[in-house]
Design goal:
80 residues, mainly beta, four-stranded antiparallel β-sheet, elongated
């Protein structure tokens, strides 16, 4: 006699692992320093990626993105 065994595997993914979402994780600031200019319409920023260099950044609502230009300086006092 030959016996055939059937094994059923049940996978439960309903809550054993946390779903990762950008909105649920603690936010790590992309900007290290920022100073608003032009009444808050633009800002001078330093980022983690740029390190010590300062950049001009302004939101362009028609294009729905930031325009960003380097100031090519490590000293903010030269601009203010």
């Amino acid at each position: 006699m030959t016996a055939t065994a059937h094994v059923a595997l049940v996978v439960d993914n309903t809550g054993s692992q946390k779903q990762r979402s950008k909105r649920n994780t603690p936010s790590q600031s992309f900007l290290t320093d920022q100073h608003p200019i032009y009444g808050g319409k633009a800002e001078v920023v330093r980022t983690q990626q740029s390190g010590v260099y300062w950049h001009f950044r302004m939101w362009i609502s028609e294009e729905r993105k930031y325009v960003r230009k380097t100031l090519k300086t490590t000293h903010l006092r030269r601009w203010f």
